Amino acid sequence: MLKISNLHARVEDKAILQGLNLEVKPGEVHAIMGPNGAGKSTLGYVLSGRDGYEVEQGDVNFNGKDLFEMEIEERASSGLFLAFQYPVEIPGVSNMEFMKESVNATREQRGEEALSATEFLKLAKEACKQVQLPLDFLKRGVNEGFSGGEKKRNEIMQMILLKPSLCILDESDSGLDVDALQVVANGVNSQRDPQRSFIIITHYQRLLDYIKPDFVHILANGKIVKSGDASLALQVEKEGYAFLGKEFEEVS
Ligand code: ADP
Ligand code: MG
Ligand code: MG
């Protein structure tokens, strides 16, 4: 599904990712934790192809293709979903219109017929209910005046509608209340599937109380310094990152 090998990336003059390796197979849920400034969000931005994030070395293979050879739109339509890719407000474009276009672009890529307005509306209403957003959110401008929690629910709604093969969620900076956290967790859990994988970037163990990861990785100073199962997250919660000890100091 996704194989990241020896990834080095910089922002402006600063080297941030410094030899990151990660492999995600179909159906797996990976959590990435790590201290502030470790490069977690940068990893997501690099994969999404955000401007200003420069790849210096390394490869990323996504479903058998070189990710960096793919246009941004192609990454999305080939099944890569980055929850933070669309946080911007797009006044004047309705949420529904925006999502219908994204969904139909994805379907076209897969060789499926485009959904009619009626068909899409039905699916969108169901997804809206699932994330507990009032239906008028479909008519509103994309993210226009949405609260943090509403943006989050909206992201999960996009995920449900787009049916991506790999979902990357960066939960680091969102002050989610427990309800919104549950929506994220339920959204992810409802979409778990042997053919779909998740990378969940999170500062806190809290979210992982609701989403049980198959693997937990610690990212520090631009690379994965430790990997384990869900118990690694519990250990981080209890002891912080100090337990990484010498190994951690070496990369600090
Ligand atoms: P994390 O998500 O793990 O907290 P980030 O990936 O956001 O870490 O940031 C990693 C490092 O890169 C930080 O030191 C941060 O200040 C720096 N950084 C991130 N984006 C930029 C940018 N656009 N310009 C300069 N430095 C940046
Ligand atoms: Mg941060
Ligand atoms: Mg971050």
TrEMBL record:
<dbReference type="InterPro" id="IPR010230">
    <property type="entry name" value="FeS-cluster_ATPase_SufC"/>
</dbReference>
<dbReference type="InterPro" id="IPR003593">
    <property type="entry name" value="AAA+_ATPase"/>
</dbReference>
<dbReference type="Pfam" id="PF00005">
    <property type="entry name" value="ABC_tran"/>
</dbReference>
<keyword id="KW-0547">Nucleotide-binding</keyword>
<dbReference type="InterPro" id="IPR003439">
    <property type="entry name" value="ABC_transporter-like_ATP-bd"/>
</dbReference>
<feature type="domain" description="ABC transporter">
    <location>
        <begin position="2"/>
        <end position="246"/>
    </location>
</feature>
<dbReference type="InterPro" id="IPR027417">
    <property type="entry name" value="P-loop_NTPase"/>
</dbReference>
<comment type="similarity">
    <text>Belongs to the ABC transporter superfamily. Ycf16 family.</text>
</comment>
<keyword id="KW-0067">ATP-binding</keyword>
<protein>
    <submittedName>
        <fullName>Fe-S cluster assembly ATPase SufC</fullName>
    </submittedName>
</protein>
